[in-house]
Amino acid sequence: MKKNCISASFVAVFTQALPVIPPLDNKFCKDLFGLPYDTINGLTNEGYIIAIENKPMPSVTITPQKIVVKAQSVLDLATYVDSLAKEFKSKGIPMASSAYGINTEYQWLDLNSPSSEWMWNRFINPAMATATMNQCNKVSFRFVVNDSEAVNMEFMPRVGINDGIFASVNHHHAIGLNEFPTQGLLKVMFDDSQRLLEKIFFPTIIGE
Fold first, then answer.
1. Which has the closest alpha carbon to 48: 31, 69, 78?
2. Pairwise CA distance, residues 91 & 88, whole Å
3. CA distance 5 to 3
4. 126: three-class secondary structure by DSSP
5. Kind and range of the H or E run holding 81
6. What pLDDT digit, counting tens, does each position of 16-70 carry?
7. CA distance 4 to 197
8. pTM
9. 101 pairs with which residues across the strands?
10. What residues pair up with 155 in beta bridges, in sequence order?
Protein backbone atom coordinates (compact mmCIF):
# COMPACT_ATOMS: atom_id res chain seq x y z
CA MET A 1 0.00 0.00 0.00
CA LYS A 2 1.03 3.57 -0.66
CA LYS A 3 -0.15 6.28 1.75
CA ASN A 4 -0.07 10.03 1.36
CA CYS A 5 -1.62 13.06 3.01
CA ILE A 6 -3.75 15.01 0.54
CA SER A 7 -4.95 17.94 2.67
CA ALA A 8 -4.45 19.76 5.96
CA SER A 9 -6.98 21.96 7.74
CA PHE A 10 -7.06 24.18 10.81
CA VAL A 11 -10.38 24.78 12.56
CA ALA A 12 -10.91 27.28 15.38
CA VAL A 13 -14.20 27.41 17.30
CA PHE A 14 -14.65 30.98 18.47
CA THR A 15 -15.03 31.54 22.21
CA GLN A 16 -17.87 33.93 21.48
CA ALA A 17 -19.87 33.78 18.28
CA LEU A 18 -19.08 36.67 15.97
CA PRO A 19 -22.03 39.10 15.87
CA VAL A 20 -21.55 39.46 12.11
CA ILE A 21 -19.36 37.82 9.48
CA PRO A 22 -16.22 40.00 9.32
CA PRO A 23 -16.00 42.28 6.24
CA LEU A 24 -12.61 41.19 4.92
CA ASP A 25 -10.83 43.38 2.41
CA ASN A 26 -11.54 42.22 -1.15
CA LYS A 27 -7.92 42.62 -2.28
CA PHE A 28 -6.72 40.64 0.73
CA CYS A 29 -9.06 37.78 -0.19
CA LYS A 30 -8.02 37.80 -3.84
CA ASP A 31 -4.32 37.74 -2.94
CA LEU A 32 -4.51 35.21 -0.07
CA PHE A 33 -3.65 32.16 -2.19
CA GLY A 34 -1.46 33.99 -4.70
CA LEU A 35 -4.00 33.40 -7.48
CA PRO A 36 -6.08 36.59 -7.60
CA TYR A 37 -7.73 35.88 -10.96
CA ASP A 38 -8.86 32.40 -9.92
CA THR A 39 -9.97 33.27 -6.37
CA ILE A 40 -13.61 33.83 -5.52
CA ASN A 41 -14.89 35.30 -2.26
CA GLY A 42 -18.16 36.37 -0.75
CA LEU A 43 -21.02 35.49 1.55
CA THR A 44 -22.82 32.18 0.89
CA ASN A 45 -25.25 29.94 2.76
CA GLU A 46 -22.22 28.18 4.29
CA GLY A 47 -20.63 31.43 5.52
CA TYR A 48 -18.03 33.77 4.09
CA ILE A 49 -15.99 31.82 1.55
CA ILE A 50 -12.56 32.39 0.03
CA ALA A 51 -11.73 29.67 -2.51
CA ILE A 52 -10.23 28.80 -5.86
CA GLU A 53 -13.01 28.47 -8.39
CA ASN A 54 -13.99 24.84 -9.07
CA LYS A 55 -11.33 23.45 -6.71
CA PRO A 56 -11.80 21.95 -3.22
CA MET A 57 -8.70 23.65 -1.82
CA PRO A 58 -7.21 25.92 -0.73
CA SER A 59 -10.22 27.47 0.95
CA VAL A 60 -11.38 29.50 3.93
CA THR A 61 -14.86 29.32 5.45
CA ILE A 62 -15.88 31.76 8.17
CA THR A 63 -19.13 31.45 10.10
CA PRO A 64 -20.17 33.19 13.33
CA GLN A 65 -19.13 30.02 15.21
CA LYS A 66 -15.83 29.03 13.60
CA ILE A 67 -13.20 29.41 10.90
CA VAL A 68 -11.97 26.56 8.70
CA VAL A 69 -8.79 26.94 6.64
CA LYS A 70 -7.87 24.14 4.22
CA ALA A 71 -4.75 23.64 2.10
CA GLN A 72 -2.81 20.94 0.29
CA SER A 73 0.14 21.13 2.66
CA VAL A 74 0.88 22.21 6.22
CA LEU A 75 3.39 24.75 4.92
CA ASP A 76 0.75 26.45 2.75
CA LEU A 77 -1.80 26.23 5.54
CA ALA A 78 0.56 27.94 8.00
CA THR A 79 1.07 30.79 5.52
CA TYR A 80 -2.69 31.29 5.02
CA VAL A 81 -3.47 31.19 8.76
CA ASP A 82 -0.70 33.71 9.45
CA SER A 83 -2.11 36.08 6.81
CA LEU A 84 -5.62 35.71 8.21
CA ALA A 85 -4.38 36.41 11.74
CA LYS A 86 -2.83 39.69 10.57
CA GLU A 87 -6.00 40.66 8.71
CA PHE A 88 -8.23 39.85 11.70
CA LYS A 89 -5.93 41.80 14.01
CA SER A 90 -5.86 44.85 11.75
CA LYS A 91 -9.67 44.96 11.76
CA GLY A 92 -10.07 44.25 15.47
CA ILE A 93 -11.85 40.93 14.84
CA PRO A 94 -11.57 38.62 17.89
CA MET A 95 -9.65 35.40 17.28
CA ALA A 96 -9.97 33.74 20.69
CA SER A 97 -11.17 30.15 20.45
CA SER A 98 -12.53 27.62 22.95
CA ALA A 99 -11.37 24.62 20.91
CA TYR A 100 -9.46 23.85 17.73
CA GLY A 101 -9.05 21.02 15.27
CA ILE A 102 -6.01 19.70 13.43
CA ASN A 103 -7.60 17.94 10.49
CA THR A 104 -6.10 15.88 7.68
CA GLU A 105 -7.17 13.74 4.74
CA TYR A 106 -5.25 10.66 3.62
CA GLN A 107 -5.42 8.10 0.87
CA TRP A 108 -4.05 4.55 0.63
CA LEU A 109 -3.57 3.13 -2.86
CA ASP A 110 -2.62 -0.24 -4.33
CA LEU A 111 -4.66 -2.33 -1.92
CA ASN A 112 -4.56 -6.08 -2.50
CA SER A 113 -8.31 -6.18 -3.25
CA PRO A 114 -11.13 -3.82 -4.32
CA SER A 115 -11.68 -1.04 -1.78
CA SER A 116 -15.07 -2.05 -0.34
CA GLU A 117 -14.00 -5.69 -0.07
CA TRP A 118 -10.73 -4.70 1.62
CA MET A 119 -12.67 -2.58 4.13
CA TRP A 120 -15.05 -5.45 4.84
CA ASN A 121 -12.21 -7.88 5.48
CA ARG A 122 -10.37 -5.36 7.66
CA PHE A 123 -13.17 -3.91 9.75
CA ILE A 124 -16.15 -6.30 9.83
CA ASN A 125 -16.65 -9.43 11.92
CA PRO A 126 -16.46 -12.45 9.54
CA ALA A 127 -19.62 -13.85 11.14
CA MET A 128 -21.57 -11.08 9.40
CA ALA A 129 -20.73 -12.42 5.93
CA THR A 130 -24.22 -13.58 4.90
CA ALA A 131 -24.08 -13.12 1.12
CA THR A 132 -21.90 -14.16 -1.80
CA MET A 133 -20.40 -10.66 -1.90
CA ASN A 134 -19.95 -8.55 1.24
CA GLN A 135 -18.80 -4.94 1.07
CA CYS A 136 -18.15 -2.11 3.51
CA ASN A 137 -18.57 1.39 2.09
CA LYS A 138 -17.98 3.53 5.17
CA VAL A 139 -16.76 3.14 8.75
CA SER A 140 -16.27 5.74 11.49
CA PHE A 141 -14.26 5.67 14.71
CA ARG A 142 -13.87 7.96 17.71
CA PHE A 143 -10.89 7.62 20.05
CA VAL A 144 -10.70 9.67 23.26
CA VAL A 145 -6.99 10.27 23.73
CA ASN A 146 -7.22 12.20 27.02
CA ASP A 147 -9.40 14.78 28.77
CA SER A 148 -8.72 17.40 26.08
CA GLU A 149 -8.12 15.42 22.89
CA ALA A 150 -10.15 13.09 20.70
CA VAL A 151 -9.48 11.64 17.26
CA ASN A 152 -12.41 11.11 14.90
CA MET A 153 -11.80 9.09 11.73
CA GLU A 154 -13.95 8.14 8.78
CA PHE A 155 -12.83 5.64 6.12
CA MET A 156 -14.43 4.99 2.74
CA PRO A 157 -13.45 3.79 -0.74
CA ARG A 158 -11.52 6.37 -2.76
CA VAL A 159 -13.84 7.78 -5.41
CA GLY A 160 -12.82 6.70 -8.89
CA ILE A 161 -10.05 4.37 -7.68
CA ASN A 162 -10.83 0.65 -7.44
CA ASP A 163 -8.01 -0.23 -5.03
CA GLY A 164 -7.82 2.88 -2.84
CA ILE A 165 -9.36 4.11 0.40
CA PHE A 166 -9.84 7.63 1.73
CA ALA A 167 -9.69 8.77 5.35
CA SER A 168 -10.86 11.98 6.95
CA VAL A 169 -9.22 12.67 10.32
CA ASN A 170 -10.36 15.24 12.88
CA HIS A 171 -7.94 15.63 15.80
CA HIS A 172 -10.07 17.68 18.18
CA HIS A 173 -8.48 19.70 20.98
CA ALA A 174 -10.75 21.07 23.72
CA ILE A 175 -8.11 23.71 24.41
CA GLY A 176 -8.56 27.46 24.12
CA LEU A 177 -6.31 29.78 22.11
CA ASN A 178 -6.10 33.55 22.47
CA GLU A 179 -5.43 34.00 18.75
CA PHE A 180 -4.68 31.97 15.65
CA PRO A 181 -1.41 30.02 15.99
CA THR A 182 1.79 31.37 14.47
CA GLN A 183 3.31 29.54 11.51
CA GLY A 184 5.84 27.82 13.78
CA LEU A 185 3.26 26.75 16.36
CA LEU A 186 0.86 25.44 13.72
CA LYS A 187 3.60 23.27 12.23
CA VAL A 188 4.36 21.88 15.70
CA MET A 189 0.65 21.13 16.20
CA PHE A 190 0.52 19.17 12.96
CA ASP A 191 3.79 17.36 13.68
CA ASP A 192 2.45 16.24 17.07
CA SER A 193 -0.83 15.10 15.53
CA GLN A 194 0.90 13.22 12.72
CA ARG A 195 3.18 11.40 15.16
CA LEU A 196 0.12 10.19 17.06
CA LEU A 197 -1.51 8.96 13.86
CA GLU A 198 1.61 7.33 12.43
CA LYS A 199 2.76 5.60 15.63
CA ILE A 200 -0.52 4.49 17.15
CA PHE A 201 -3.63 4.76 15.00
CA PHE A 202 -2.67 3.96 11.41
CA PRO A 203 -0.57 0.86 12.23
CA THR A 204 -3.42 -0.51 14.34
CA ILE A 205 -6.34 0.43 12.08
CA ILE A 206 -4.84 -0.02 8.62
CA GLY A 207 -2.16 -2.55 9.53
CA GLU A 208 0.79 -0.68 8.12
1. 69
2. 5
3. 7
4. helix
5. helix 74-90
6. 999 888 778 999 999 999 999 999 999 999 999 999 999 999 999 999 999 999 9
7. 13
8. 0.93
9. 11, 172
10. 139, 167
